[in-house]
Amino acid sequence: MDAIGNSIPSMISIEEALSRILGYVEVLPAEQQPLVDALGQVLAEDVSSSFDIPPLDNTAMDGYAVRAEDTAGATAEAPVQLRVIGELAAGYTFDRTVEPGAAVRIMTGAPVPAGADAIVPFEETDEPFQAAPSGVRRLAAEVNVLKAAQPGANIRRAGEDLRARQVVVQKGTVLRPSEIGVIASVGTAAVKVIRRPAVAVLSTGDELLEPGQPRSGARIYDSNAHSVSALVRRYGGVPLMLGIAKDTVKELTAKIHEGLAADLLITSAGVSRGDYDIVKDVLTREGEIDFWTVAMKPGKPLAFGCFQKDGRRIPHIGLPGNPVSAMVAFEIFGRPAMLKMMGKGDWRRPILRAIAEERIVNRNDPRLFLARCIVSKRGGKHYASLTGAQGSGILTSMMRANALTLIPAEIDVVEPGEEIEVIMLDWSRGEEWGSYLAEEH
Fold first, then answer.
1. Higher pLDDT pick, 393 / 136
2. pLDDT digits (tens, 9 = 90+) for 403-420
3. Any residues with CB less than 8 A from the CB of 183 and at least 6 apart, and which?
4. Mind giving me the DSSP string for 41-81?
5. How far apart are CA 204 and CA 223, in angstroms?
6. Confidence band for 438, pLDDT divided at 50, 70 and 90
7. Residue 225: burial class (beta carbons within 10 Å; 0-12, 13-18, 19+)
8. Is 380 helix (H, G, I), strand (E, B) or coil?
9. Contact 113, 102 (CB under 8 A)
10. pLDDT band at 341 (very low <50, low <70, confident <90, very high)
11. Which of 364, 369, 365, 374 is nearest to 424 (CA)?
12. Long-range contacts of 409-413 (CB under 8 A, 24+ apart)
């Protein structure tokens, strides 16, 4: 990757910038993780079962294990009486055979005793438990069956869920709670998964203060490190917050070297054309850096490159300093890079068609307009309304949004009622992911 020197590159498209980033970052090595800790990670090897699940035929209901032929003709008016020869709970086995005219009281999940071929639910018997004088419940000698049972009724067959030697979760699967449960059901306590990326997050600028410090003069609190670190954690990474680097070559260089212990370095601010934006100069000297201006609003100034340390290449994304620009740029570039590192093949967010509810102006700006908006569904259609003023310093516009518009540079104005494309960030306002899947897919 060539260093830019003193030249200023022309704007490139989001697609080209993203392609270059994703073409550079690589999938991280695998690690062994306890099951619950592996939630959201990508499985690095197949998981198989060494036995059938269920391992034995078992009952799906509380009731009585019987021979179905013994219940033939049973009705509430003419019940069939069976002798009760025992009781069986889940986790135990019964060492006798259910012979003609016999029944075993059985609890859900217990293995079906030999000789029985149906389960009669309690609701279809007179359940004749009686309390002994001491209050201790005792098993009755007989039970009346009020409805005939069919062979196989209420029995879960051995292996109906999983078979021995079957691959139960395949390599490359993102582990959700359901996969975690299935893996646990085959007796596996830990799995090999693609490692979560450690992402170093560094803010730059003499004007910044850490939250909690007393504010004075023109100083402002650093929100970028916290919003970006929260995004890193939200998408499955491990944020390493490096604090604030002042606008000096010495301090910035030291902080950057501290961040090279991570898998990805994220900086904010210092990559535009201002006299005090020294980040680009330090990055060019310390690493291999290609500076871009990307044809997007907000988020035009962006840096991408890499550093070398101990035989490792650490990619770097330099975000803009404005808080909205930093968050949007991370959503568009940092999130996909992280997900690729985690082995996730599908990093794309859903894009919908929505009807604009107000006038959106993008006149005389040759950039894709990523306005913050709220998307909701009414009458089977999606509608998009802006979150208010769209300045790149108005961080509350991100707080109110669940989507970004995708208004091409060639469209100067969108009038109310016209359709636009939106990229969904979440479904917290007016719609759930499930309804999207049901209606759109």
1. 393
2. 999 999 999 999 999 999
3. 35, 47, 168, 169, 175, 191
4. SBBSS-EE-SS-BSSS-EESSSEEEE-GGGGTT--SSSPEE
5. 12
6. very low
7. buried
8. coil
9. no
10. very high
11. 374
12. 409/295, 409/362, 409/365, 409/366, 409/367, 409/368, 409/369, 411/362, 412/361, 412/362, 412/363, 412/364, 413/359, 413/360, 413/361, 413/362, 413/363
DSSP 124: G
The model's pTM:
0.84
Query: What residue type is 378 in one-letter code?
Result: R
Specify whether the CB–CB gap between 112 and 94 falls below 8 A.
no
Q: What is the pLDDT of residues 281-316, one digit of tens each?
A: 777 788 887 778 899 999 999 989 999 989 999 999
Nearest to 230 by CA among 334, 151, 131: 334
Q: What structural domains does the chain harbor?
A: 11-28+196-341 (3.40.980.10), 34-52+161-194 (3.90.105.10), 58-156 (2.170.190.11), 351-440 (2.40.340.10)
Q: Looking at this protein, which amino acid is placed at residue 216?
A: S
